[in-house]
Design a protein that fits this description.
With about 70 residues, this protein is mainly α. The chain is built from three helices and no strands.
């Protein structure tokens, strides 16, 4: 069961990172970077969520019960 949850978190994390990549290259993010020097909040939260979800998923897969 831990492996299934780990895989789910890993998939969600990768999807969020893909969405963050698309959001980073959007017109709104380009304007935000030109005006403020940083990306939009949406992009930053997608990156943070993607990294967090991926790390949780990898941790769940690597620490799963052995032998069962």
């Amino acid at each position: 069961m831990k492996k299934i949850i780990g895989i789910a978190f890993l998939i969600v994390g990768v999807v969020l990172l893909c969405l963050a990549y698309d959001s980073y290259h959007s017109a709104a993010s380009d304007v935000s970077r030109a005006v403020t020097g940083t990306s939009t909040n949406k992009t930053l939260w997608l990156v943070i969520g993607g990294i967090f979800g991926s790390l949780i998923g990898l941790g769940g897969l690597l620490s799963g019960s052995k032998g069962a």
